[in-house]
Design brief:
Blueprint: H1 2-19, E1 28-35, E2 37-38, E3 41-42, E4 49-52, E5 59-63, E6 68-72, E7 78-82, E8 91-96, E9 102-106, E10 112-116, E11 122-127, E12 142-146, E13 149-154, E14 159-163, E15 169-174, H2 175-184, H3 194-208, E16 214-217, E17 223-227, E18 232-236, E19 243-245, E20 258-263, E21 269-273, E22 278-282, E23 288-293, E24 308-311, E25 316-320, E26 327-334
Antiparallel strand pairs: 1-26, 2-3, 4-5, 5-6, 6-7, 8-9, 9-10, 10-11, 12-13, 13-14, 14-15, 16-17, 17-18, 18-19, 20-21, 21-22, 22-23, 24-25, 25-26
Helix pairs in contact: 2-3
Length: 335
């Protein structure tokens, strides 16, 4: 009887497993494809700023070392370039608009946003200190474009504004104030010991002297930014509270010196780390998934990665580097 029960149980298990097969969770990985190039080979650049035209799949780079804006096809070959008369050595960021338009952000001698057509010809400009008197000291370092709106971020004040291409002010955010409130509200309602109070004071002191290290906006209007001295990245979705994540360290999934941040259509978040020479990926729940790049001299390696841009339609991520290594292109895959 005992033997019969064991056989019956084994048969039942066999049927159950055959009806409901176990499947391993999908693993995400990144594969190196190539560098942005021309007919002479990879195009050298030092920490270029990158933008992707979401309509055409073209890639724009602001190469400040060579005072050039270079345009690449979705197969990474350069098709056009300009910039001789645009004083690009004082430009700090670039964004792709609609119908081939390009926006270039200048910080010196006065913060200015220039609007160019697809041939690089100026068709308008906005001086940020003319937006409102309230923003007279607003000096942006980062620029992004989403759904007909331009978003500008001042790294030092951690203020962000949304404007129309004509210069109409739409919205304003004060993230330095919000982060300070987050730090002070840590473990609300609980009495704090001396060590916890000291940590809050240290974080507030660090925040006081810190700047934004990276900034972007996704297609849903969610704002992302990093603050390297806090070893943290942040997500500010519309109508929700500001969220922060990140742990300092040298192990996989931890932050060294974070820089650029971008998100894809699935809500996956990519963060470049200059110190660790990797790009880290987190899912929509802010859980670490994988990282790629790593310091080295092989084509798939990264050297002090900085700016990121994502082509969500073709599942490509563009990574700008130091040491004139140019821009590397990777594809993100689910195994």
């Amino acid at each position: 009887m005992k033997t019969h029960l064991n056989i019956t149980w084994l048969l039942t298990l066999t049927v159950l497993f055959s009806l409901s097969p176990l499947t391993a969770p999908a693993q995400t990985s990144a594969s190196y494809l190539y560098h942005l190039a021309d007919f002479n080979g990879p195009v050298a650049s030092q920490w270029a700023r990158i933008a992707v035209d979401r309509q055409q799949g073209e890639v724009y780079t602001l190469n400040r070392t060579d005072s050039a804006i270079q345009i690449f096809s979705d197969t990474a070959m350069q098709t056009f370039g300009f910039g001789e008369n645009l004083a690009l050595t004082s430009a700090v960021d670039i964004a792709a608009g609609d119908n081939g338009e390009i926006f270039v952000l200048y910080r010196f001698p006065v913060a200015t946003l220039k609007r160019l057509n697809y041939r690089g010809e100026p068709i308008g400009e906005i001086k940020t200190n003319e937006l409102t008197k309230e923003l007279a000291s607003f000096t942006p370092d980062f620029l992004d474009y989403q759904q007909g709106h331009l978003l500008l971020a001042d790294a030092e004040s951690m203020q962000v504004i949304a404007i129309t291409p004509a210069g109409e002010l739409l919205q304003r955010y004060d993230f330095r104030r919000e982060i300070a409130e987050m730090i002070k509200a840590n473990e609300p309602g609980k009495p704090r010991n001396q060590a916890q109070l000291k940590k809050v004071q240290e974080d507030l002191a660090t925040l006081k002297g810190a700047n934004m290290s990276g900034f972007s906006v996704d297609g849903e209007g969610t704002i992302y930014f990093t603050i390297a001295p806090l070893f943290s990245a942040f997500r500010a979705a519309p109508q929700t509270k500001l969220e922060g994540f990140g742990v300092p360290g040298g192990a996989p999934g931890k932050f060294g010196v974070v820089a650029s941040i971008e998100a894809d259509r699935q809500g996956n978040i990519f963060v470049s780390d200059r110190l660790r020479c990797v790009v880290l990926m987190f899912d929509h729940n802010l859980d670490f998934q994988m990282e790629f790049g790593y310091r080295g001299t092989e084509p798939q390696n990264l050297v002090v990665p900085d700016d990121l841009a994502i082509d969500t339609h073709n599942h490509k991520i563009y990574v700008a580097q130091a040491a004139n290594r140019g821009v590397s292109v990777f594809t993100i895959e689910n195994d």
